[in-house]
Amino acid sequence: MDEGSMNGDIHDVLVVGGGATGLACARTLARCGKRVALMEREARVGGNISSRRDGEWQTEIGPNTLIMKPPLYRLLEEMNLLDEAQSANPTAKKRFVAMDGHPVALPTHPLRALNNPLIGREGWSQIIREPFVKKSRAEEESLAGFVERRLGRRVLERMVDPFVSGVYAGDPHRLSAQAAMPRLVAIEREYGSLIRGGLTKLWQSRRATPEMPAEWRGRLVSFPSGLGRLAERLGEEITANGGEIQCQCEVAAIEKGEQGWQITDSTGRVFRARELVLAVSAPVAIKLLMGLDEALTAPLAEIAYPSVNAVALGFRREDITHALDGFGVLIPSVERRRTLGALFSSTIFEGRAPAGHCLINAFIGGRRQPEAAEGSDAEQVQQVLYDLRDLLGIRGDPVWQQVNRWPQAIPQYELGHQARIARLDRALEYHNGLSLAGNWRDGIAVGDCLENGRLLGERLAGRL
Asked: Are 313 and 352 a contacting pair, CB within 8 Å?
């Protein structure tokens, strides 16, 4: 049996999974001087973060943008990536939502919101009452229930519903407000009102010492070669600091030994370490932990992962009448279309389409309509075209297309999610040296995963 560990020694930490969480964790450990090896079953690191170039067309297979917050700013600064960061076109600040078959821009200023048809009289009649709505005493509430209780059905159907589709591909009636939108729940608990709390938070942020330059705050960024550059740079940092990366390394077995944890890969190589981190999706973690402890796998098995397909379509610019002057368009479920929404990728960032052309990335499937992700690539393209033609004024057929499928796309933080994670954490107390992490807990955004990976790496480094 071959020894996979460097020089046959035991590592401090083995990290399984080369997505954002695993990369950030391994990078932190390597920078702290720990002997760490990252194991990734694919030929490259990055997980869902993947950029693809086809001639002059450039697409993101997974996440499309990063939102600049202090932890991400510090990370990019440490890795000397700020100069490479590509800021989104200012036009991308505008967001559209489909309403009665037409794209309507979300208000970008409070005064413009007064006459916005997405809110309407029905919406405003509830919004002005929001400061007087009593706090809920329930331990948990669906996101739909929370929003409708505080802001009314109109805001739920026309604003929150499409947002949830765009971020989670989820169902607000199933998502847990406490798990999926904890900041909103915290504002209600502290201030008794989203409006009062939001205004207070805004005032406090303006008086607080800035954690990052103001011009970077909230900026949408990527890189000229796509978000794959971020994963690439994280991998470079790991190896530059003495860490080890094993790609095309599929874990076949996990065992707990006297000196820590042992992993055997599909080729028979053995890796040993004092600490083991599984930074993988819940379904993958279940397979790896099968037979070790049902108390670990049972909570993970309750996390839903709907199918979502990303359909990238390239058009001649003259074949679309809409100005595409925004980030994209989201489609509420009340519009009864199968496509969840579409990003105007070539508007958001330069270099995504040939001159005189435009690139649109649409998403189909999700928690409420998983069957929409079924069918051939050609059928997926035709469905998206059917849903978007009238919305965007598409007159011709695409000159370029690409369909990427995620059979298990985005973990759903549904009702009971916090209890599931609590059960999992209690079970982990009986398995010293084992950590489980990923976008199925503590936030699905890339920025959340990077920060959670960093914090996990610091905790492990502190006890080794």
From this structure: no
Torsion of Cα atoms, 430 then 431 then 437 then 440, to 10°: -40
Q: Give phi and psi for 24, each to the nearest 5.
A: -65, -40
Q: Are 180 and 418 contacting, i.e. CB atoms less than 8 angstroms apart? A: no
Here the tokens at position 33 are 């001087």
Backbone dihedral region of 311: left (phi > 0), alpha (psi from -120 to 50 degrees) or beta? Answer: beta
Distance CA 442, CA 421 (A): 10
C-alpha distances (whole Å) from 336 to each of 19, 139, 369 are 34, 32, 11
Residue 410's nearest CA partner among 139, 71, 62, 65 is 62
pLDDT digits (tens, 9 = 90+) for 388-406: 999 999 998 999 999 999 9
* Sign of the Cα pseudo-torsion (67, 72, 74, 75, in order): negative
Q: How many CA atoms lie within 13 A of 222 on its CB side?
A: 24
446-463 and 70-78 helices, crossing angle to 10°: 70
> Token pair 């435009």 is at which residue?
358
Q: Which residue has 């002005």 as its token pair?
A: 128
Q: For residues 428 and 454, give the distance between their C-alpha atoms in angstroms, rounded to a whole number.
A: 20
d(C-alpha 314, C-alpha 354), whole Å: 9
* pLDDT in the model for residue 8: 53
What the block records as the tokens of 306 is: 């709907």
Contact 39, 248 (CB under 8 A): no
User: Between 294-301 and 282-289, two packed helices, what is the crossing angle to 10 degrees?
Assistant: 160
Please list the helix, strand and coil fractions of the chain in percent, rounded to the nearest 5, in that order: 40, 20, 40
Cβ atoms within 10 Å of 112's Cβ, excluding its own: 11
Q: Give 10-residue mean pLDDT values along the chain (464 residues).
A: 54 97 98 97 95 96 94 97 96 94 87 84 92 93 97 95 92 97 95 93 81 91 97 97 96 89 94 97 96 95 97 97 97 95 97 97 95 96 97 96 95 98 97 97 96 98 92
Q: For 384-405, give one letter per residue: b (16+ CB within 10 A) or e.
A: bbebbeebbebeeebebbbbbe
Tokens of 142: 């669906």
Q: Phi and psi at residue 96, in whole multiples of 5°?
A: -110, 150
Under 8 Å between Cβ of 211 and 70 = yes
Could you tell me which of 32, 8, 49 has the C-alpha nearest to residue 461? 32
